[in-house]
Every structure is written in C-alpha cells, then in structure tokens.
Here is the input.
Amino acid sequence: MNDALDQWKREIERLSSGPVVIVPVETDAVRNVLNIPPVFAGRAVMVQLLSAEAFVSQLVRAHALNVNVDGPLGVFHFVILNRRRAADWEGMEDSLIAHEFGHIWLNVTGYRSLEAGTDARQACLATHASDVIQHILIREEAQRRGLDTMRFWLRVHTAALVNERTPAATTGRCEQWQAFAEWMDAMLGAPRWDLLDKYERSMTARYPALRALVTSTRDWLATIDLWDRSVYEHALHRLTSDMLTIR
Ligand SMILES: [Zn+2]
Here is the structure.
C-alpha cells in the first residue's frame, strides 16, 4: 500500500472508532466454499457477512466491496477483495483499494450512501444511485490525495471494449440501473478516455432508453456542489426518483 493510501486509512481510523481491514476472499467454485485468512480483526463479523447468500453473489460479480459494520462485536470497515478476479487488477491494487477507501471515508464523514434495505430491487437502486453521486466525490478526493481511482476502471473497461466482451444488453431494471451508473462514471470520470466515443456508441446501441437521462443528469450535476451535505442528500433522493423512470 502506498503512503497516500496508508495515510487515508489512518485518517479514516481516527475519524471512526473502528479499524479498516482489507480481506482477500478466495472463491473455490469446485468445492463451493469461500476461503479467508485464518486471523484478522473482525473475522467473526466477516464470517457472518459471508453467510448471507445475497452478499456472496454480489461479491462474486465484483472486484471488491466495502462494508461498514457497527454491531455488537464492534465497528469495522472492511474492504473485501475478490481474489478470483485478481488478474484484472494486477499492478493496480492501489487504484482499486483507493476507490473502496473513498466509499468508507465518505461514510465516516457524513456523506452516507442510501440504505440498501432487504428488498433486492430497492437495494439495487440504492446501490447504483449512491454510486453515481459518491463516485464523483471519490474521484475528486482521491485526486487531492494523489491517488487515481480511474486507472483500474479504465483498464477493465478498455479491455471489455477492445475485446468486444461487452455483454448483450438486458432489459432487467437492476441491470439498466447498473448500466446507467457505469455510463455516468465514464462520462464524468473519464472525459479524456480515447475510447469514450466508442463506449458511448456501444452504450447508446445497447441502452437507447438511458441516453436522455444520462445527458440530463450530467447537465444537472454540473450545476450543484455535492460537497455541501444538504445538496448531497437532496441529489441522492432526486437521482433515485429519476432512476425510477427507467423501465
Ligand atoms: Zn464504488
């Protein structure tokens, strides 16, 4: 972990009463088990998290997840790395971890993500609406700290475009909300990406119904200051209702 990242970690721990714990998880598809290191702070809490099927299926599809826990066993901020996809972030671990630290830092500084709840559809909407807004602040804050959260994003999305590994568009609402959030990341976070035009053409072809909302959301976000906490809260809720118009 580089110095800027280490400093960010210590700062989060000073602001919060719990440690930031990075947990690599190895998925063994053959035996259908998950392996985690034998000893680390909050292991019992992590075992509980990993016993929830919904959580594991989310992890399997992700490169990394962050979870903030404040329970009977204490306060923990976990960054969980999906080792099965480690080849994707080889040499860029700092970029991936900085992104997750960003989410945790926002959480402990009063820029909370929307409550996911227990309903799967609601959780999907809350996750992706929060991501659009939080990723803007994460990119800015990481940059201030000399960290680049987009390096890893660009590698993954460039590879997908170059290899034409973009999956066929699906009409499920959760997938569309996810596509919307990813498109916003590209537009706002990678304005100088040499494949941005190609990416946008591909997204427009796959998700024509999203195009108008992506553009109007970009224009609206450019006029507000998300670092103002009341503006931040309002933006989260407005974006959630806007995203509900996606069918
Ligand atoms: Zn994120």
